[in-house]
Each structure stands twice: as structure tokens, then as C-alpha cells.
What we know:
Layout: H1 2-17, E1 20-24, E2 28-32, E3 44-47, E4 68-74, E5 84-94, H2 103-108, E6 111-115, E7 142-143, E8 156-160, H3 163-176, E9 180-187, E10 200-203, E11 214-221, H4 233-241, H5 260-268
Antiparallel strand pairs: 1-11, 2-4, 3-10, 4-9, 5-8, 5-11, 6-7, 6-9
One calcium ion is lined by residues 29-30, 40-41, 123, 204-206.
Amino acid sequence: xxxxxxxLGLSVCLSALAQQTYQAQPTDDVWYYDQAFNPGxxxxxxxxxxxxxxxxxxxxxxxxxxxxxxxxxxxxxxxxGRQYQVIRAQITVVQTQPPGYTRDEGEQFPLEARPLxxxxxxxxxxxxxxxxxxxxxTTLFGESLMSNYRTDAPFAIPIPLNVELFEPYFNEAxxxxxxxxxxxxxxxxxxxxxxxTRFYRFYSRNDSGGxxxxxxxxxxxxxxxxxxxxxxxxxxxTVLFNFGSNDAQADLNSDGIVxxxxxxDVLFHFGxxx
Length: 274
Ligand SMILES: [Ca+2]
Ligand SMILES: [Ca+2]
Ligand SMILES: [Ca+2]
């Protein structure tokens, strides 16, 4: 009986560890714009474009027709030296006031989350004219949803991230960039002809109310069925033993069945983290 209780306890413990969640605000965020006031410490980040492009196609720094916001997170507590499967990822930003655009315009010109060329910047030392400021990439990790659209109160804009595209970026940040992960917020939304109010305004990490951007990533060590941090023969055996079943632990890709896809996941990552 004592052994049984002990095994049961271990099993509960392992399933609780199967997925881990990182959730935090950025360590630095800046408003990247030539006329930005207090860009490193402003409580309000802003993004707009020219109606056609979210990032200036000439490669120029954002000015007049473009405004970007840059943020970087420190993925603390996630050990380097292994590959992670990203199960779910999201950024949530909180709009500072009722939107200056309609719901249709928000759906047509969403707020975009994209990669940065590097994370070598800080809000404390931010200089618009520095020679090597980060560039916003072309990959689209996520776009805002207007499901929370309200005209009468501040509202959140959840930006679901494209996990397939985001996963290698996340792994690169953990394994090759000391855990620093950068995101550029941009939009094609054009403020012109709308009294200059039609653009994205959302809280920075410097907001005294704590309403800055939040990155949430649900992840696990890739191929690691039993969640001991290493993908090895124990994981392989668990998948084989549960082959054809709906065992949730062995069903690595969470499609409801343990099959060759899960087996390949283990084989492909064999030795990961060991
Ligand atoms: Ca800031
Ligand atoms: Ca394992
Ligand atoms: Ca599966």
C-alpha cells in the first residue's frame, strides 16, 4: 500500500511538471519614433503605419508615417542546452483608452508581433540615433484579435502567437541569446484622416498600474514524455507501450492519439537535455 501511494504521488508530480509556463512582462520596452517623448520610460507604447506597410519598406527608422514599439523579455528559469516544444504562446497588451478606430479597422489593420534582429538595447540607454538599433523582421508571429473591442473602456488585445514560427525563435533566445527574446510591435494602421487618433496605444512595462505587455509561453522539453528533462529510452518505451492509446502523457502533440507522430517526436529529439 505504501508503495502504491508513493507511485501515485510520483505520477501526480510528473503530470504537473509535464508542461511549464513562462509568464512575465518585458525587462525593457521602448517607443521607437523620432518624435517620441521619453521613449524608454513612457507609460504608453504606440504603433502605426502608412495603411499599406507596418514597417517602412525603405528600411529607414520609423518617423512620421511609421511608429514601432520594441520589447525584450528575459526568459529566466528556462535552462539552455536543450530544445523546447512550444505548446502555446501569447502576448497580451492592454489598450490605454477607448480605441480611435472601429472594430472593422482593427480587424483590417491589426497590431502585429514580429521578431527583432537583435536584443542589444535597453530602455535606460535608448538612443533613437544609435547606429545599430534593432530592426523589425518580416515574420508575423501574431496579430491582435478584436474580440475584446470596446469603445467605452480600456481593453486587452490578445495577440496569439503562431507557435510553429515562434518555436525556433524561442529556442534561439534560450540557447543562443542568453534567454533574451525581442518582439517588435508594428501595425499598418494609418492615423491620417482620423484626427490623428487612429493608432495603437498600449501600456508599457513602466505603467504604474502594472498593465504592461505580458508574454506567456507554455512549453516542455521536446520529446520528453516523462518530464525528467531528458529525452531517452524511458520516453521511447512509454510511447511504444501506449501506442494506439489516448494516453495524455505519451500523446506529445496532443492530437488525442499516441501514434507514429509522437514516436518520431521522441526519436527526433533523442538525447535532448540528457
Ligand atoms: Ca519602457
Ligand atoms: Ca524523459
Ligand atoms: Ca499524438
